């Protein structure tokens, strides 16, 4: 039986890397008494995978992991079991039973929402002008940037990978491409904006939070971005 779990990551645990988070959940499954399925072979391991590793130092309200279980009472019970053993800063928010043929979350990640807020003491003197410039920056036909890859550096147009970029109050909201094929980090967008306007924000100016992760149930031309928790969900 396949299960998709949504959880949040807040506070000091934002400095815990992806591999350690994975090890933590493996132990949490045992402590919570989850009847998780193990792989076969000489070195059995829990069948568990994460949708999209979160960058170090980022908080999140929308992380996803997939597991397989031999049995379970209900999604509500599993959420309670896991939250009873969670450390401060990690909370299980949702649990979804998936159809048997559902693809794993990692393979269908297509986009993610982020909120950026200025750290205390890092707010530009003229925030209104900063946001007005950001709007003008986003309205360009092309947004050229240099992106570092495993093979070196390459120039790319960020515009097709930015689905939404808005400001509200004192924060910036963006919906961007995510996944193994075209993963766009909010930091790269803001660094490119700095170069475009000819000024630089102070180092570590932003608190960045991932709000949601989406899969695409449409195609490249006609996207239909749906939260991962709702894709492949078993209809009862």
UniProtKB/TrEMBL annotation:
InterPro entries from the UniProt entry: DUF2344 (IPR018768)
One Pfam family hit: DUF2344
Residue ranges constituting the DUF2344 domain according to the UniProt record: 2-186
Protein name, as recorded: DUF2344 domain-containing protein
Organism of this sequence: Hungatella hominis
């Amino acid at each position: 039986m396949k299960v998709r779990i949504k959880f949040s990551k807040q506070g000091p645990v934002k400095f815990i890397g992806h591999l350690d988070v994975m090890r933590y959940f493996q132990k949490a499954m045992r402590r919570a008494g989850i009847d998780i399925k193990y792989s076969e072979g000489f070195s059995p391991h829990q069948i568990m995978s994460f949708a999209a590793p979160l960058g170090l130092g980022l908080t999140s309200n929308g992380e996803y992991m997939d597991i397989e279980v031999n049995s379970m009472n209900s999604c509500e019970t599993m959420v309670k079991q896991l939250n009873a053993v969670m450390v401060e800063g990690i909370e299980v928010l949702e649990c979804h039973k998936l159809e048997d043929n559902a693809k794993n979350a990692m393979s269908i990640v297509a986009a993610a929402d982020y909120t950026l807020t200025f750290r205390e003491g890092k707010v530009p003197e003229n925030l209104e002008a900063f946001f007005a410039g950001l709007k003008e920056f986003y309205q360009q036909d092309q947004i050229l940037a240099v992106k570092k890859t495993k093979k070196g550096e390459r120039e790319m147009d960020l515009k097709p990978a930015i689905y939404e970029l808005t400001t509200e109050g004192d924060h910036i909201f963006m919906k961007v491409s995510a996944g193994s094929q075209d993963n766009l980090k909010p930091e790269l967008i803001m660094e490119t904006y700095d170069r475009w306007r000819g000024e630089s924000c102070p180092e570590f100016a932003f608190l960045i939070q991932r709000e949601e992760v989406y899969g695409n149930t449409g195609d490249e031309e006609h996207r239909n971005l749906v939260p991962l928790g709702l894709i492949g969900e078993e209809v009862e």
